[in-house]
Amino acid sequence: MATPKLKQFLKKALAKYKHKDVTQKEVMATLKHFEDLKPVVDTYVFNDGSQTELLCLCGTIPVKIKANTYNIPVCIWLTEFHPEIPPLVYVRPTGNMVINESKHVDMNGRVYMPYLHEWTHALHRSSSASCIPPARTNPSRSGNAVQRSSSASGVPAARSSPSRTGNDSDLIVLIQHMRRVFSEEPPVFMRSACPPGSYLPAEIERILTDKVYRNRQITQLDVRNAVTNFKDLKVHVDVFSTPGASKRELLCLKGTVPVIYKEGTYNIPLKVWLFEDHPNAAPVCYVVPTTNMRINDRCKHVNANGKLQLPYLDDWKDANSDLFSLIQVMRIVFGEEPPVYALADASGADNPVVSAGTTSGTAPTSASSAPQQAADPAATDKPPKSADRVLCLICMDKKVDSVVYDCGHMCMCFECGQAVLDAQANCPMCRSKIKDIIRTYHAGVAE
For labeling, which of 183, 283, 364, 402 is most exposed (least CB within 10 Å)? Predict the structure, then answer.
């Protein structure tokens, strides 16, 4: 775009911006350094459903990953108060790409970095931040195509930022930080490199694209992330009905999730229903006992019909809640109090935890070798050993050995807890603010 045309476009696009001249100057400098970014005016959708027209820089930025240079598709939204308020940055995967969720990129492609969190400018006023509600991009938009190229492919290398007044934050330095972070952990990968099971069946893709689900892309990413991490969950289209309500077809995650109870691992059968406005509305979850199982009526998190009642579902927030975290919370809760029991055997004793591998009732390999537990949790007041019972819900590898201050939840290993604290994220159990992570130690008292 020629300079006179660019100036004319920006003047019109920034008409309602508070700092028109400063924003225009910064955008022009950024476009000069990164020629594959283009300015466009598009609709930004906030979490509360409100919309506004904002200027955004869309296109690709060159990122060197190992020996090759890749063009990563991004979209940088500038708020009406720019540069008082930091930009809203997203990775925009193309149709043949999948977001690589990490500590810097969430499942919706939103980019989080210390540079954005610490954004400062001479025009910055802390009171301005309250004018802009937390936001998420319009999921119906698609990013620009990404192409793999060599370092000699003509992609311009970003030059060092020109001198700035004081320590003001600016777009050029922001993009340089993004390039460095993305080079260490790529924000996207090609579908051909997706882990097995990450694809959705064709009929699922169809129901998503038939305008049944309003937030199609977000729902697709949420479902894909869940079934990729929990291989025994499968996506189905099934009929959902409740008393006094009409029947309708909804997406349903059906299968089993592994739960550690005492020293054994058991597969608990579940159904998770997703409503048409997911993730704005919380899913409805059921434990689905097989023919040789029954609902544990002592479990406070499951009613007589198998419906789950969890604080995570009650406090569901579309911007911060997702299926993967929901299932992790289920695993922790079920590890403390099993939701189902095996029916009485020939001796008349109930087995405390169902050892069902799938909803068809086949036995899991992990549970088949697990030692037999006590007859009924109600028969003893001795709780299971927490150190053997729960794995960190972040890494799913190390045992829980820390407590979140000050909500008190024990759900992470100390290393993951420190990483969550450093990222200034919230407690994965209750979403409350984390003030500190305290390591805990289990006394070696013989039981």
Answer: 183
pTM of the model: 0.43
CATH topology of domain 3-192: Ubiquitin Conjugating Enzyme (3.10.110)
pLDDT at residue 286, rounded to an integer: 93
Q: Is the confidence at residue 44, as pLDDT, over 90?
A: no
Closest CA to 92 of 61, 120, 118, 125: 61
Lowest mean pLDDT among 25-29, 95-99, 126-130: 126-130
CB neighbours of 246 closer than 8 A, spacing ≥ 6? Answer: none
Give the CA angle between residues 262, 436, 129 to the nearest 5°: 125
Burial class (CB in 10 A: 0-12, 13-18, 19+), 437: buried
Provide the CATH topology of domain 391-447.
Herpes Virus-1 (3.30.40)
Contacts of 255 (CB under 8 A, 6+ apart): 230, 232, 233, 234, 269, 270, 358, 359
CATH code of the domain made up of 198-383: 3.10.110.10
Long-range pairs, 24-28, Cβ under 8 A, ≥24: 26/82, 26/83, 26/170, 26/171, 27/55, 27/57, 27/78, 27/171, 28/3
pLDDT in tens, 387-444: 344 677 777 778 888 888 888 888 888 888 888 887 777 787 777 788 888 888 765 5
Cis peptide preceding 83, ω within 30 of 0: yes
Do the Cβ atoms of 438 and 406 come closer than 8 Å?
A: no
Residue spans per domain, the chain? 3-192, 198-383, 391-447
Burial pattern 15-45, b for ≥16 Cβ within 10 A else e, equals eebbbeebbbebbeebbebbebbebeeeebb
pLDDT (tens digit per residue) in 119-153: 987 665 444 444 444 443 343 333 333 333 333 33
Within this chain, domains 198-383 and 391-447 share the same CATH topology: no
